[in-house]
Amino acid sequence: MRRIEIDSLSDLERVADEVIDSLDGRTVVLLRGGMGAGKTTLVSRIAARLGAEDTVTSPTFALVNQYEGTECSIYHFDFYRIDRIEEVFDLGYEEYFYSGDLCLVEWPEKIEPLIPDDAMVVRITAGDGEERIFEIE
After folding, report:
1. 2-136, what's its fold?
2. Per-residue CA distances from 55 to 5, 15, 59, 95, 133 (Å)
3. pLDDT digits over 97-134, tens only?
4. Are 105 and 121 in contact (CB under 8 A)?
5. Helix (H) or strand (E) holding 82
6. Would you say the C-alpha torsion 44, 77, 4, 132 has a positive or negative sign?
7. Which of 13, 100, 128, 132 would you call most buried, defined as having the most Cβ atoms within 10 angstroms of its Cβ?
8. Under DSSP, is residue 102 helix (H, G, I), strand (E, B) or coil?
9. What is the C-alpha to C-alpha distance for residues 32 and 130, in angstroms, rounded to an integer?
10. Domain boundaries, given as residue ranges, for the chain
């Protein structure tokens, strides 16, 4: 496990690089953290590091946003508003999760039974102000 502490959100590029460097062939990344922890902000930095030029926004109502990187597509999921796991089946999650493209998943606890065994976990703990602790498993 890698642990990264930052004092400012301007240090997120370093965290994004660590996440990308830690993928080791994995394509599903679970972002675990409370509301306002910085999950979407981290996704924006990861997408930018992978060459996406799109503006990253939370897909809270759409459930998934797609960004085009220079080497892969990036799918950004937000399952916060999922009430029934069947909604994820209707979305066709398997096509995304097993596509070989990068899938960044916010609120994965809502879909726990569907998560691939080899998924990477990034735990985000918010401190005072912009301080954050990231644990990459």
Report:
1. Rossmann fold (3.40.50)
2. 26, 19, 12, 24, 25
3. 999 999 999 999 999 999 999 999 999 999 888 899 99
4. no
5. none
6. positive
7. 132
8. strand
9. 17
10. 2-136
